[in-house]
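U., I forgot to send this yesterday:
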Amino acid sequence: MSDVKQLRIGLIGCGKMGRHHMASIQAAGTGRLVALADPAVDRSTLEGLAPRDVRLFPNAAAMLADVELDVVHIVTPPATHADLAVQALEAGVHVYVEKPFAATLEEANRILETAAAGDLKVCAGHQVVFEKGALKAGEILPLLGRVVLVRSYFSFRQARRNLTALEQTLDILPHAVYPLLAFLEECAGTESPAVLHGLNVDVAGEVQAIVGKGGKSGVVMVTLSGRPVSHTLEVAGTNGCLNVDFVSGAVTRLPGPGASAIAAVMAPYITTLQTLVGSTLGFVSMFLNSKIAYKGLPPLFREFHRSIMKDEPSPVTPASIRETVVICEAVEEALQAANGIRQEEARLEVEAAERSLPGDGRDRGLIVVTGGTGLLGAALIHDLIGSGFRVRALVRRVPPWTGRIPGTDYQVCDLGNDIPPSAVLGADLVIHCAAETAGGIAEHQRNSIDATRNLLQAAHTAGVSRFVQISSIAVVLGSREYGRPIDEDAPLDPAYSQRGPYVWGKAESEKLAVEFGQAHDMEVKVVRPGPLIDYENYTPPGRLGRDVGPRFVVIGRPGNPLAICRVKTAARLLRHYAEAFEETPGVLNLLEPEVPTRGDLVEKLRESRPDLKVWYVPATFVRLLSPLLKLVQRVVFGSKKPVDVYAAFASERYDTSRAAALARKVHD
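Result:
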């Protein structure tokens, strides 16, 4: 294959990470994407990412059977990696597998042995060690003398509500493990097996592991609670130390023994200057190459593809893959054991709480709620059960005991598929809170629009005559275009399709629900929540401003109103639809009856951050600057649809009288 100039690449999985692969394949320049396999792929969303002649397939089997490929990139949920990798290898195709490579050593061996039997190459998604920072650190390493400690640290946040803390931890864990193993091996100067010497875990998302390799020791630390979000690697030796910041790309180093008083005094100044320069250059490079979110992917792809073309060893060795899987598997076993104990404790707590719930004498009827594991849905279920209603929650999967609400009947149901009428049979009311919150057009079509259609049809077939569609305040015409504060008579924004997939999906779902109700004699009411804020776990609304280190920059003045809706308020008012459906409005813009000011929301933030420093930037200044910022986005970043910064933070004006009137009728 040495005479092949570009490899023919197939991609399995076209989700968020799959799209990063498309951009990175193009940037690598060593292969051409010729086929995609994903049941939900939408050609209209691939513009600029994949060649126009790329072939689309509903599954991997169809793609492998119909297209001649050199290499396949597997970017699917981790549980599918082993089967898909073996399937591709048995078809005679080299394989790249995103992290986590495999859940167990047994699965990893199955992949690697299949590859060896077919004289094929395998690569894992260990891209961090191919980033410039890691490569530069590797060059510095020999200057540090005898290395005494390597520490890999990764602090992250919960990326999605549908991931548990345990799942999120296991997802990011490899990115903390394989850099440590790579540097330990380089420090040892010899290949030797990694050994796990000690381990401490917490199911809330905390891992500390001591790892030995070749006589050297290292520490892996992963946290979902530690802040700020950070990913670093530190190496300490007898002749200095270095630190790699994988977020900024900066590398700081302190060569020399550093034992004198002068060296100790100068050390913070030296590292500060290096951090300032390195971070600035790193972020400038990041902005100039904004299409590539994961900077290590193109060089890793390039090296792997060249290893195929030149028939050389893969840049990520089988030993490295196995050792990473072994460490991650041991951590997972410990986390699962701890989680088993925690879930058993939670089960006893839930069952005890259920025994104390009111009996059948207080039964006020059955309410079916979708999106019951989300922020609004969970709060609503709490309120309904506390008021004597029976609740059936339609969920994609039953939540763990730690996430269950006592008294809730959880039923597994994928709303994107046909819904059996039995799922809503006997319901007095269906409250549809579920909707897609991420992804592109295809995801919102399936999980918002199609889901609404399927639920309405199931409710109609089951004889349910009352339905509440949870939409979004973002679908209506803005107050400037409307000419007055937005009320419930404001029409849908005619350009809602240009406001992103989420707003498009919500608007289309709302229209669908209203039209279905009119056609099938079903009472459909629409509720449009504003920005939902959980005051118990407070995160400020995006329109308020942004964190900048120890300061919070607020766009606007302290007295400027900023409409929001507290989750408790939303749940309380929605409960009234179950209590007195006939009295509730057909359309409701769900906002706090008394609109808070930006200053009020800042003071709420200060309750948990008393040290917070706040800067107020006048909205007029941002409005004047917005055209220049758009121009920068177009010229520097090549953005075809630049963000209107002023519009992103501007306050809409709302008439909250209908929400206030409903609030007066509702009793806690």
